[in-house]
Design a protein that fits this description.
Number of strands: 9
Distance between the termini: 65 Å
Radius of gyration: 17 Å
Strand content: 25-35%
Shape: globular
Strand order of the largest sheet: 1-3-2-6-7-8-9
CATH class: Alpha Beta
Oligomer: single chain
Mean pLDDT: 94
Largest sheet: 7 strands, mixed
Number of helices: 6
CATH superfamily: Alpha/Beta hydrolase fold, catalytic domain
Length: 210
C-alpha cells in the first residue's frame, strides 16, 4: 500500500466590506480582524468614528469555522498551526492583490494598516514583506510574530504604534510591561487605554491625528 501526498492550487475568494467616512478619500485604513471574527461584525466597531476623508477596508480571513460545536455562530481566522507556512504565504499574496485595487484607485492616499489581535500578526507579516507601501502600522492587542526579524520591520520607513487595553485579559500586568518593552525596542510607540480586548475609537482617532 502506497500513501502519496500532494497539493492542488485553486482560486480562493476573499470576502470584505468597506466603510466610507465624510469627505473625499485621502486615507486608506486597512483593518484586519482578530480570531473568530467575521468582517460584517468587525467593521461595525468603526461605525461611529469621527475620522474624515477615510476609506476603511476590512478583509476577512479565509478560514471559517463554528465557534461552538458543529452549528451556530461562525467565525473566521487567518491561520492555524496546521500548514502555517502556506497560509502565511497565501495571506500575503492575497492581501497584496486585494490592497492594490484600492491603492491604484487612490494613488495619493495615505495608507494605514491596523491589525487587531490575530490580525496584528498577519498584518506584521504582510508589511514585513515590503509589498505594501504602508505609512503607519498599528498593532492592536497583538503579539509581534517571533518569526519576523527585527530588521525586517525596523528598516521600513513608517510609523509604528502598539495599542493595548489596560484591562486586556490577554495581557495581564505580569506580562504587559515585557510586551511593551519588546515593541519599544522594535520602534513602536506604545499606547494604553482604559478598556479590554477591543477597539477604542477615541484612542484610534487620537493616534491617527498625530
Amino acid at each position: 500500500m502506497t500513501l502519496q501526498k500532494g497539493t492542488f492550487e485553486t482560486k480562493r475568494a476573499l470576502r470584505f466590506q468597506t466603510l466610507s467616512t465624510e469627505g473625499p478619500i485621502e486615507h486608506l485604513l486597512f483593518v484586519l480582524h482578530g480570531y473568530g471574527h467575521l468582517v460584517e461584525y468587525f467593521i461595525k466597531k468603526f461605525d461611529e468614528t469621527n475620522l474624515k476623508n477615510t476609506l476603511i477596508i476590512a478583509p476577512e480571513g479565509m478560514h471559517r469555522f463554528y465557534l461552538n460545536g458543529t452549528s451556530g455562530r461562525v467565525g473566521a481566522s487567518w491561520m492555524t498551526k496546521e500548514w502555517r507556512e502556506q497560509d502565511i504565504l497565501e495571506n500575503t499574496q492575497t492581501l497584496n492583490a486585494f490592497a492594490n485595487q484600492f491603492i491604484e484607485q487612490y494613488p495619493s492616499a495615505k495608507i494605514t494598516v491596523l491589525g487587531f489581535s490575530q490580525g496584528g500578526a498577519t498584518a506584521a507579516r504582510w508589511i514585513s514583506e515590503q509589498q505594501i507601501a504602508c505609512d503607519h502600522f498599528i498593532s492592536w492587542g497583538s503579539v509581534f510574530p517571533p518569526d519576523i526579524s527585527a530588521e525586517a520591520l525596523t528598516k521600513l520607513n513608517m510609523k509604528r504604534s502598539f495599542v493595548v487595553g489596560q484591562q486586556d485579559p490577554y495581557f495581564p500586568e505580569t506580562v504587559l510591561q515585557d510586551v511593551i518593552k519588546q515593541h519599544q525596542e522594535l520602534g513602536f510607540e506604545c499606547i494604553t487605554f482604559d478598556g479590554k480586548h477591543d477597539i477604542s475609537l477615541n484612542t484610534l482617532e487620537a493616534i491617527l491625528a498625530l
